[in-house]
Amino acid sequence: MNDSLLFTRDKGVVTLTLNEPATRNAVSPAITEALVARIREINQDLSIHCVILTGAGEGFSSGGNVKDMKEKTGLFGGTPAEIRRGYWHGIQQIPLAMYELEVPSIAAVNGAAIGAGCDLALMCDIRVAGRSAVFAESFMRVGLVSGDGGAWHLPRVVGLSKAYEMTFTGDFIRAEEAVRIGLASRWVEDADLMTEALALAQRIAAHPSHSLRLTKRLLRDSQQVSLPIALELASSSQALVQHTHDQYEAVSAFLEKRQPKFEDR
């Protein structure tokens, strides 16, 4: 694993920190490789209940590297066929991995989340913004389209009309406005961002692992299917969790008025 993504853990909560502050955490191949690998590891570890994603330095992520855009290198270099394959085997592996991330995720957005950086925040389940946070679906500013899943995620978060507006204008959305339009669930003072994100993550992580993971899958998949299929998914998930040790422990602790002791089984 490389140093472009830092991994820290506090009991059942993992914090992943994009760690290329010199580029304001532009989404590099190193970040892509490390993030995809960490997500695969997390999915295999039932003792991890929640993930926080944030950025080192003064910004969450500046998205694509503008220097590479100008010089036609990296993700922006090669023939059209090579660029297409470069996206699929490169940056587009992030939205695919984030979609399959089994545990709840929180984007702790510090500073700018621009372009692909905005989309990366959108891939998380919850966004908590520091006061200085700013979001922008800024691809039009450099004559591009959203190549990393923003066109799929943004309308699902803010609605189609607002997604059109943000995409066509490239306007910058500050923290308070982000909360108003549903782009973020809350904003906090910059100094309190990680404390608040961790407190929220710990509240989430206090619940049983299997129940959390199946509930996240149910919420995600229910957006893509008809009501009868969603109900079938719900009943199937319910049948599974009712045969887990931790669901029985949750009920027992509730009735006995004590704190549950979960074993991730």
How would you portray this structure in words?
This protein is α/β, with parallel strands linked by helices. It folds into two domains: 5-205, Alpha-Beta Complex (2-enoyl-CoA Hydratase, Chain A, domain 1); 209-256, Orthogonal Bundle (Lyase 2-enoyl-coa Hydratase, Chain  A, domain 2), CATH 1.10.12. It is 48% helix and 15% strand. It contains twelve helices and nine strands. It has helices spanning 29-44, 66-71, 80-89, 93-100, 116-122, 150-158, 160-169, 175-180, 193-205, 209-222, 227-241, 245-256, and strands spanning 5-10, 13-18, 50-55, 105-109, 112-114, 126-130, 134-136, 173-174, 186-188. A six-stranded mixed sheet has the order 1-2-3-4-6-9, sandwiched between helices. The chain has a three-stranded mixed sheet with strand order 5-7-8. A hairpin with a 2-residue loop joins β1 (5-10) and β2 (13-18). The radius of gyration is 19 Å and the shape is globular.
- Beta-sheet strand percentage? 5-15%
Nearest-integer average pLDDT: 95
Radius of gyration: 19 Å
Enumerate the strands of the largest sheet in spatial order, edge to edge or round the barrel: 1-2-3-4-6-9
Can you identify the CATH superfamily of the largest domain?
2-enoyl-CoA Hydratase, Chain A, domain 1
What is the CATH C-level name of the largest domain?
Answer: Alpha Beta
CATH architecture identity of the largest domain: Alpha-Beta Complex
Distance from first to last alpha carbon: 29 Å
Largest sheet: 6 strands, mixed
Please provide the count of β strands.
Answer: 9
Shape: globular
